[in-house]
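Hi team,

Filling in the usual template for the complex we talked about on Friday. All components are listed, including any nucleic acid strands or ligand strings, so the model treats them as one assembly.

SUBMITTER: L.P.
PURPOSE: interface mapping
COMPONENTS: two
RESIDUES: 974
SEQUENCES:
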Amino acid sequence: MTITQDPWESLRTTALLGTDRRPLPATALPLAESVDQDDPATALLELAALATVRRRAGALPVPAAGPPGPPAPEDPRPELPPAAARRLAVLLAGRSNGGGTLANLTELLPQWLATARARGFRPPAALVPALLDAARARSELRTDGVALAGPLGRWLAGQNPDWRYVLRTTAPDAPEQPTDDHLWHEGLFAERVTHLTLLRRRDPAAGLALLRSTWPTERAEDRLLFLDALQDGLSPADEPFLEAALGDRSKNVRATAAELLSTLPGSDLAHRMAVRATAAVRLAEPGTHLLVTPPAECDAGMQRDGIPLKSPTGRGERAWWFGEVIAAAPLAVWPETTGLTPEQLLTLRVGDSIDETSSSWADDLREAWARAAVRQHDADWARALLGPAPVPPARGAGRSRAPRATGAPSKLLAVLPPAERAVWTAAFIEVHGLGEAFQLLGACVTPWTPPLSTAVVTALARAAASGAYPWSHSGVLGMTERALAPETAAAVEALAAEAAPESAWSETFARLAGTLRFREAMLAELGA
Amino acid sequence: MPPPTVGAMEERWSTEHVLSLAPDAASQKAAGKLSTPAPWSAAGTDGTALWGECRGSGSTPYRTVIELATPAYRCSCPSRKFPCKHALGLLLLWSGTPEAVAAAEPADWAADWLAARRERAAIPSAQATADPAAARRRAEKRGARVAAGAAELRLRLADRIRHGLADRSTAGPWEEVAARMVDAQAPGLAARVRELDGLPQERLLEEYAMLHLLATAATRIDELPAGLAATVRTRVGYTTDAAEILAGPTVRDRWQVLGSRTAPMGDGGDDRLTTRRVWLRGAKTGRPALLLAFGRPDQAPDLAVPTGHLLEAELAFHPAARPLRAALGTRYGAPEPGPAAPPTGLTVAEAVAGYGTAVADDPWLDAWPTVLAGVVPVRTPEGWQLTDGHHTVPVRPSAVPEPALWRLAAVSTGRPLTVFGEYGHQGFAPVTAWAGDHRPIGLTTA
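RESULT (copied from the run log):
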C-alpha cells in the first residue's frame, strides 16, 4: 500500500476487513504521527476521527454548476387581501370529515377559488404548492385552481411531475395561447387535446385543418376525443369532415360524428333524419292525434348516420330505431311540418295504425324529443317538455299534478336560462318537497337565488316539523351547505333556535347556519 | 385598571404563527372552524390579553382567556389538549377579523385569572437548598460511572474494528450497548450508540470514529479546557438546570427570532414529547442563540414568539466550547415586530467557512445556524440545492419534508432570497425564508 492513496479510503478498507486481517495503513494525514499506534484498532479509530474532523472543518464550497433556470414570469395581479389569504390557508389545511360545527371546509374551496379567480387576485406564493396539491387531488378544482395559481403555478408545475396536470389544464382566459403546432406533433395525448381545444376556440378553421392533417394516422381512441373537441365552434364548415368521419373504421367515432352532425341543423345528416322522422310521425287527418309508423328496418344509410342496429338494453328493434331517429332529427321540423307549437304537439294523442291511442308510443316520442332538446340545447322544447312550474295547492285551484317524468327533468332544466331554472325548481320544491329535488337542485347555478334558497329552507323546516330524520335528506343538505344564499343565514339560525335542543335537527341547522356565516365572511373578504 | 393601551402589542399574530402553537393537526382544524365571529360572544382585548365566550354543543358557553405576552391560556372547556381549540380559534379570530374582538376592559372572570397569574409570577420559585457536600458526592459518583461506561464503549468500538465492519456475524446489536450506557448515566452516549444500527455502511466508520472521540474525551473530562469539557459533558448527557445558568452571567439584547421548528423528540421511540427549537440572533451583539422548549403529550411547548419578532430579554448561555443553547431569563416587554428587511446573511462560501470554524471548536457539531443571502433553491437530479451563483450547498436529505422545499421554491419564484437554516457537513436544512421585503415564511409549519 502506498501512502499516495486517499487516506480515508485506505482507512475504510481496513476497517471493513478488520485490523485482525489487515495492517493499519500508513496515511499522510497531518498529526497522524501523534496517534498512539500500540493498538491498531484504537489507532485506526483515532486516525478516522482526525480525518473526519479535518474534512468537516476544512471543507471548501462547491462551485455552482451553472446559473439557475429562468425564474417564474411576473404575476401582475394584485395579491389577495390578508384576511382572504389567511382564509385560503385555513381552507387548504381543512381536511375535516364534516363533523362538528361547520360543514366540511373543503366543500367551500371550489366557491372560494372561483370567486378569487373572478376577482383577479394572486395567491401568496407560499400557498401555491398546497393549492396545486389540492387541485391535483380534486379534478373539479383544477380549472379555477390552475388559473388562480397563475404563472407561478405553471413555473412550478414545469419542475414537479406531480403537477404535470397544470400544463394540460385549459384555462379559457389564459393569456398564453398556442403559437405553433409543436405540441400537436410531439406532445402527450392530453397536451394535444388541450392544444386542439385552445386553437379551436381561437380559430375553428385552423383547428379543423390541424386535425385533418394527422387524422388518418391517429389511433381510434384518440380520434374519438379529438372529434369531441370540435364541439367548440362547431359550424357548417365542419360538415364535410364529419360526413367523411361517418365512414370511420371505429364505431364510436362514427357515432360521435353523427351526434355532432345532428346538432348542426342545416347539415345533410339533419336533413336525412328529418325525412326519416317525418315519415315515422305524421299528423293524422283530423289533426287530433299523431300517427306513428316506426322504421321497418335499419338500412345501411341509417346505420351510417349513427343509428345502432341493436339496442344496448335489448329494446324491441322498431321502437329502438324510432327513438334514435326522432332524437337525432332537428326539432324545428315538427312545427314546420305540422304548424303546431311544441306545447300543442305535446298535448296530442299518439297512436299507430292499430291503436289510435298508445301510451307506449307517446312515452317513446316524448323521451326522444327530450333527448333531442337536450342535445340541441332547445329551450322552447325543454320548457314545453318540463311543463309549467308546479303551482302550490293553496294558490292554484287545488290542482297539483307532478310533471310527467320525461327523460331526466334535470337535464331538460339545464337547457333553460339560469333564472328560469331557479324559479321552476323553487316551485317544484314548494309543491313536492325535497325528496325528488336532488338532481334538479344540482342543475341550478350556485349560489342559489334568494327565492330558491328560501324555498329549500322552508322545505327543510317542513321536513323537521314532520318528524323526518335529517340524514334522509343528507344529499340535499350537503349541497345546501355549498349553494344556499348567505342571506338565508338568519332564517336558518332561527330554525336552529326553534328546533328541540340537542336534537339532530337543531345540530343540523346550527351547522348549516355556521357554514353560511363562514361563507358570507369568506366572500366578503374577497370583496365579492 | 388603566384604559386599554394601543401599543406594539396590537400587532396581531399571523395565522401561521397561531397554527404553529397547536398541539397537533386535529387542533389546527378544529380551531379553523372556530375562527369566525359566529360562535363567539363578548370577545374582547385590552392589548395584553384576549377573552371571549364560545358557544359549543352544551348550554353554557366556554370561557376562554389568553395572556399574549407569555402566552398563557385558560379555558373552561374539558379538553385535555393545550392550548385547546377555543383558545386557538379565538387567536385566529383576533388575527383574521380584528373588528370581531373589540378593545375593552377584561370581563370579570377574565380579569380574575389574569390577576392571579400576575401574582403567581411575582413569587419566585422556592430554591431547593441542597446539601453541597452530598451534591458533590453524587457528582463524583456519577463522573466515575460515566467514565467507566465511556471506557467500555471504547473497547466495544475497537472490538468491532478488529473484526471488521463488514463482518456482522459476531457482533450483537448496539441496542444492548446503548442500555449499558443508560446504566452508566450517559444518555447522550446511549442515543448516539442506538443510531449506529440504522446507519448505512458507508457512514459507519465516520460515526464510530466520532463516537470513539467522544468516549475518549468522556474518560478524561477533567483534563480538557473548560469550554470543551462543558461541550463533552453536554454531549455525553449531563443536563444543566436553567435556574442555575440564569443565576450566572446573562446577555441582554433585542433578540430577533430567525425561525422555529417543532418536532417529536427522539426517533419515534418516545414521540410523546415534542421539542420546539427557537433560533435567535442578538440585534446588538449579533450572537446566535437557540432556545429549547418541551411539550407534554397534547400540549404545545410553551415558548412561542413569532418568527421575525424582536424580544428584548436576558439570555444565559449554556457553557460550551461554542455556546449556542441558552435559557430565557427576564423579558423586557412583549415581543415586537422586527424590521421588514430580511436579516443580513452570508454567501455560500462564507457559510461553509463559518461551519468549519465552528467545528474547530466543537468537533461533534453537526450543523450551525446560518443565514444565507441571495440564494436560489434549485431542484437537480441529485436533490435540492441552494446556489448563490458562485457556490452551491445541497439541502440536507430528509432534513426537511418535500412540501417545505416546494414552498421554498414557490416563495423564491426562482429569484434570489434570504434563507435561515442549519448548515453542516450533511448540507443545509432550511427553516425560514424571506423573499424581498416580505414577511418571513416558516417553511415547516403548515
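MY TAKE: Residues 336 and 468 of chain A are 50 Å apart (CA to CA). Chain A touches chain B through 70 residues (CB under 8 Å).

Thanks, L.
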